[in-house]
Amino acid sequence: MTDQPPNPARSSFAIDVPDALLARARAGDRAAFEQLYRWFERPVFTLALRIGGDREEARDVLQETMLKVIGRIGEFRGSNGSPFWGWLRQIAINEALMRLRRDKRLAQEVGIDDTDVFSEDTAPPPPAAADAALLQRAMANLPAATRSVLWLYHAEGYTHEEIAGLMQRTPSFSKSQLARGTRKLRTALAIEEDLHA
């Protein structure tokens, strides 16, 4: 069985950036950087907010991410057909997780119980029909590590192995947090789980 999310979502970062715009940005064209900022502002902010849970911190992650993109744009080569948006998303994730590690929130909020039950085909979070504001509040109440795993797995389409690498943990940690977070969301949203589905 492969370790893929049930229905990998298309990342909000998946914006096709024209080669001409990238060339202008590499040449230091300010208008090109402004265009990139406008295109990626919302995806970076949303990802940072979902991982960190704090709007002010999400703004800081957005600024740091875009400053790193500007400073390192010459490093992006697009080798093996990798898109610019994937490179930028990786910078944003690293920045958001680095802040959690620095604040020691990844380590202190999550106690891992080896007996924690998880399933390879853990059901996705509640359907999109659920009240978005209620879901957002429920996500905000989860520990940072759990919230991060849920977001990276369901919204960004990362595998448990990839999440483990990003968070410097094991795939079992990712699976455990996904199961735990899904259960907590279901409880918070009072959604009955259909065991016979």
How large is the share of residues in beta strands? under 5%
Oligomer: single chain
Which stretches are poorly predicted, pLDDT < 50 over at least 5 residues?
Answer: 4-8, 108-122, 126-130, 192-197
Tally of distinct domains: 2
Helicity, as a percent range:
55-70%
Rg on CA atoms, Å: 18 Å
CATH superfamily of the largest domain: RNA polymerase sigma factor, region 2, helix turn helix motif
The main pleated sheet reads as: none
Identify the CATH class of the largest domain. Mainly Alpha
Query: What's the total count of β strands?
Result: 0
User: Gap between N and C termini, in Å?
Assistant: 20 Å
Would you summarize the structure shown here?
The chain has 197 residues and is mostly helical. 60% of the residues lie in helices and 0% in strands. It folds into 2 domains: 19-103, Rna Polymerase Sigma Factor, Chain: A (Orthogonal Bundle), CATH 1.10.1740.10; 119-188, Winged helix-like DNA-binding domain superfamily/Winged helix DNA-binding domain (Arc Repressor Mutant, subunit A), CATH 1.10.10.
